[in-house]
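Hey L., structure's done. Input below.
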Amino acid sequence: MKSYLRPFLIVAAFGMALQACVPARQFEEMKNKQETCADERAQLSQEKKDLETERNELLVSTESMRKTVEYLEGDTTRLGISLRKMNRQYDKINELNDELLRKQAELRDGSAAENRKLALELQKTQFELQQKEDELNDLDKELKARSANLDRLNSELISREARVKELEALVSRKDSATQALKDKVAAALYSFRDKGLTVEQRNGKIYVSLEAKLLFPKGSTNIDPEGKKAILDLCKAIAEQKDISILVEGHTDSDPMKGGTMKDNWDLSVLRATAVVRLMVENGEIDPTKLTAAGRGEYIPVDQGETEDAKAKNRRIEIILTPDLNDLFEILED
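Output:
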């Protein structure tokens, strides 16, 4: 069969199978939720990368600004030394000017030749004095300009450091809140730790993974009593969390479906995910606007092996708790 026809055949078969199980409208809603989930997951991943990139850029920029300020402070010190030297030279010139005034007085009583000599010396000294004054004025202007630039850079550096600290504090609070939620969930599900349930924190999210054997009979979408207890215990632990979104993913092994109303593993994974979501809404009292159900089929295994143990690990429900990052995005937009 040509590869470009396969997606259309799968979609057609998937639709025919769902018509026997759920209304077409419900299928369309599940499909839209699945696509929305994928988009949101990609967007959140990209936004987190952008956040980390900007934070690193801010740290590098801050370090560069700090080095520039240190250089300018050193340069300002050197200019101050030069200015003091010029002031001492200016004092010497004033002394020389006084001496010239004295000689100028002597001109009135001296010979014509001596008067011309003293006049030339006076003119030369006055020219040198004007040069020194001009240099002193130029140096003073440069010093003031560098001082103003230094003040501007210091102000910008303080602003950048404050923004970096604000970001770091907010990230730290988010991480602490996520860790606290993870600990709370792990404690609530402690009795299931040896029954195929794990709780992990990765990439700022909490992953609750439940092997299918804990929830469903083989090939079924009906949650058994022990599985219901695990789901409802989780709901109690997160019921008061107002700033998280919840993604429920169904995963299967690679064994093909045999008979029954389900066409393939896509069907099975979607229906199991929606069964968990329905239980969380109807009995766990979780806000349905926070929930998304998705079927991943056999395509994201946790174990690549072909043994029965590997397949059992791949047959699972993953409940992914994602904290709200709107506060971080608002800071980045300022």
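The domain at 60-174 is CATH 1.10.287.1490 (Helix Hairpins). The beta strands are 197-202, 205-211, 244-251, 291-297, 316-323.

-- N.
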